[in-house]
Structure formats: structure tokens, C-alpha cells
Amino acid sequence: MNSKPQTDARDEARIGKQIRLPWSKAIEIAVKSIKVRFWRSMITMSSIVLAIAFLMSIWTSTAITAALDAGPQHDISVVRSKTIVVRGTIDGTAGAPTPDELKSRFAKDLVAAQLWNDELIEEKEDAKDDATSDEKKKLDVEIAELKTRATADKHVEFLHTYLKARRQRLESMKGKVDAVLQQERVGSDEDVAPQAPPDDSAVAAAPPVAAGYVGDFLLKMSPTDTWLAILALLVCLVGIANAMFMTVQERFREIGTMKCLGALDTFIVKLFLLESSALGFIGTLLGIIVGMFLSSLRQLIVYKSPTLTYYPGLNIILAGVLAAFIGLLLSILAAILPARNAARMEPVEAMRVEE
Amino acid sequence: MKQTIVRTRAVTKIYTMGKVEVHALRGVDLEVQAGEYISIMGPSGSGKSTLFNMIGGLDKPSDGKVYIEEVDVAQLDAYELAWLRCRKIGYIFQTFNIIPVMTALENVTLPMIFAGMTTDESRDKGVELLKRVGLGDRLSHKPFELSGGQQQRVAVARAMANDPSLLLADEPTGNLDIQTGTEIIELMKQMNEEDGVTIISATHDHKMLSASDRIVWIADGRIDRIEARGDIKIELGTIEGET
What we know:
The complex is a heterodimer of chains A (355) and B (243).
Chain A: H1 8-14, H2 23-36, H3 38-69, H4 76-91, H5 99-105, H6 107-129, H7 133-149, H8 155-173, H9 216-219, H10 223-250, H11 252-260, H12 265-303, H13 306-309, H14 313-343
Helix pairs in contact in A: 2-12, 3-10, 3-12, 3-14, 4-8, 6-7, 6-8, 10-14, 12-14
Chain B: E1 4-17, E2 20-33, E3 37-41, H1 48-55, E4 63-68, E5 71-72, H2 78-88, E6 89-92, H3 104-114, H4 119-132, H5 148-159, E7 166-170, H6 178-195, E8 198-203, E9 214-219, E10 222-228
Parallel strand pairs in B: 3-8, 3-9, 6-7, 7-8
Antiparallel strand pairs in B: 1-2, 1-4, 4-5, 9-10
Helix pairs in contact in B: 3-4, 3-5, 4-5, 5-6
């Protein structure tokens, strides 16, 4: 009899009584599997922590730096911190920006400096009109000096001079009562006006304005940092995949047995992806926190209090969310091939006996 | 009316190892009725394990047919095969294969979860099964806390989880000492008698002879002979110890 009178087996499978692996059970098994191989799981997770911490720290420092660079020009602490940066370039301190980097970062300040310089030159030119010939000669010398100090090749020192002058001006006006709220909008010409050291009547007591723009932590990453971050993530991916492949090989019996109990291939994939995601989730979280704190701390030490005043909270939250997404994606991607490998194991593997 | 649980017809299996062809099975015909306790016996390399894998739906024959409850296993897709393993067949392994990260109870209830039972139902049934195999006080023990014999008991309980019609045991006493092995055989016999579950066991162990209804002797890929229990004269020495 080759007909299939007992079709109930196949019908039942199709209709009501399906094979299921409820999510709660899958999570339970995944968590237990991690706990059982605790230290190896921790090592795998540490690679995610490191890679994501690296990524997050780059983004955090980029965001903070961008925020400070765009900070209100009348804020004495901002000017002070900029002076520190330029000082670092002049002294050649490790980690200080190169002259070219300075040029692009402080482009607006350079423009302001030029205008300020031009104003000074003009003042001196005007003063020549009522001067004696001796005074005229002195003024000419001063004008020449002003012109030479602002040439293109000397922009670092020029920037330093300008920032120092502004700082002194702001310091001398501290405590003056008349406050006119000066809202500075980023990108407008107001903050490059030569009157940027505000005149005596207007001491700006502007509240910290959200400086920088949303997403600048991405756009202002240096190419080196970008490459390093990509590399770190790739190394992490390979490391996780490698560890998972080994785990799958070791668990051939467990997988084969589950299949003999009726587990579908998709169950096996589910289990392994869950394990990897759990590690990825926790590792990513830790990495974000570590990266953010270390970086913020470093910036705080370098730039001091402006870091906190102009802390780019929104940007850093965005960076954190993006890093979380990347971390989770990474851990799932890394586990896909090993999980498929596991799912393809035959149940008969469970029978294998090492003689 | 007796039902044929397993039927093989001219089952042949050829393995190709490089250039060499190994004929593991050369046309085996076998019929197993519901409720029987069958032992497949034979030396290593006789095709015993291969036949076992065929019957259990773990492998497909190169030629010939295998029917489980009159369904041709070669025609089942992965989903249907999984369903078969979940609901109709229970497996017992030489290496016990209890999942190490789970307790005894969790191991026994796992197939029930696959079958869609609720947590409460499965828990109750699992406890009952474990009590039946004598492990009522070890529900939350993990495998490493159990002896070999106890692990195999858990395996028996797990195999019975979804009330299968067929129990397949691959060298169930292979890793057990004589005393424990006898206990397990008795346990399986108990299941066979009380629940009417068909048992097919591939084994070396001569202790299995007295429990079996029929013994299928395999040699060189073919059935050598089939003996019914009554026909066997067994002389086994007894080893001192408690019975």
C-alpha cells in the first residue's frame, strides 16, 4: 500500500498543531547559554565595548570641539579656550591641530581678525591726517607692521594675537552692568563684525546658545578618525564571527539533539542570533557610556569650563543612538553566517560518538 | 488491529568515500508492529546504525523506501520531518544528550514547548514523567549534577514527552555500567508495557535480549536472521551485586 492513508501527520503539521519556539523560551535558552560560557562571552563582548567606545569617543570629542568652535564670540571662556588651542599649535603640543586644521576650524575667527586688523589700519590712516611728519613716519611703520602680521603664512600667530586682544577686551569689560542680550546666530555676519569685542555699552550676557549644528559630529570627523573607526568595527565584526563559529562547532551535539526533538532550522538561527544580540546590546551600551565619559573628561581637562556650558547634549544623544544602532547591527551581522552554519547541521550529528 | 509502525522495503544505502563505495545497507526489509520492542543487533560496521538512522527519519535511503506510520519519509519536507520528530518519535542516545544549560525538568519540557504546550501544562506533565522514571527529587538538577544513569532516565522521560508512538534508542546502555544499564532497559520495558509505545533499539548489549519481543540480527548490510524472544537461549553469567 503506497497511498498515504495516514495523512493526518502531514495535515496536522500544516494546519493547527505547529512547531513553535516562543520568544520567552528562546530568550531563556540564549541567556542561559551565555551564562554557561560566561568568560568567553565576556571576551567576545569586550571587543564590542572597545570598538563602540572608540567610535563614541571620536564622535563625542568632535561634537564638543565643534560646539566650542561655534560658541558665542563674546563669551570670554570660549575665547580663552580657543586661545589655548592656538597656543598649542604654536608650541607644537602633541594632539594640537595643525596650522591647516586651525585655518578651517577658526575660519570665522580669521575673518573677524582680518576685519579687526583692517579697522586698526584704517584708524591709523585717519590719524595720519592730523599728524606731524614725525608722527606720520611712526604711523607708517605701525601700519606696515599691521599689514605684515596679517599675511597668509602667519595666520597662526595672527589668530593668537587677535584672540588675546579680544580676551583682554572682554576681561576689561567684565562686570559692566549694561547688558544687551546679543543673540548670535551661527553663520550670520553678526559674529564676524569688527565690533565683536562689543563696545562699552553692551556687555553681552547671552545665555549659552545651542552651538554647532545637529549632526556636525559626523560631518566634522577627520578622515583619519573615520578610517580608524571603520577599521575598529571591522576587526570587532570578524572577532565576533570567529568566536561564534567556534561556539557552533562545539555545540554540535546540542544542536543535533534539539533537531531530534523537533526544532526547526529557524529555531536554531533564532537562538544564536539572540545570543549575539544580547551580548551586542550590553556591550554597545557599555561602550557608549565609556566612550562618552572618557572623551568628555578629556575635553573638559583641555578646554575647561566651556565644555560644560556649551555641552552639545543633543548631538551626543544622537551620536549615542547611532552608535547603539551600529553596535547592534554589527553583532547581528557577525552572527548570521555562524547561525546559518548551525542551522544546517543534521540531527544525526547528535549521534556522533567519539570512539 | 495491529498497525505497522515502521516498514522498510529493500532499503539500500551506499556511501561514497572518495573513490570507494561503501554499501552500508543492501536491501533490508523489515516490519515493526505497534507496541513491539525490537532490538537491532550486530557488530560495528554491520549497518546497524545506518538502518537505525533510516528508521528514525534521520537519513534518506539511496534506494528503497521507509514508511513510518505508512508515510514515506523520503517525501517529507524539513517542516514535516521536524513535526514527526517532535510528536511521533522519541530519541534516546548513547551519550544521553541532555542539554547542559537546562535543568532536568526544563529538558523534559522542551519538546512539549516545541509542540505548543503552555508552560503550566508542560511543567505538570514534566514533573509527572520525571517522577515516573524515579527522578522526582531531582527536577532542578542540571546534567552535571546527575550521574550517567540519571541522565539517561531524564532522556527517557524527555523522549516520552509528547506521547510518541515510537521510541528509538541508539545504544542506550553504551555508556552505562551493568547495573545501571539493566535499570534503563527495565525502564524502557516499563514504558513499552504501560504506554504501548513501540521501541526500536540498536544495541550491542546482550542484556537487551530478554526485554525484546524480537531481535533483528544484522550483518554486512543485510538482515541475517530475526528471532523472537521465545527462541533465544541465553546464558549470561550474573555478576555479584544487588538486583
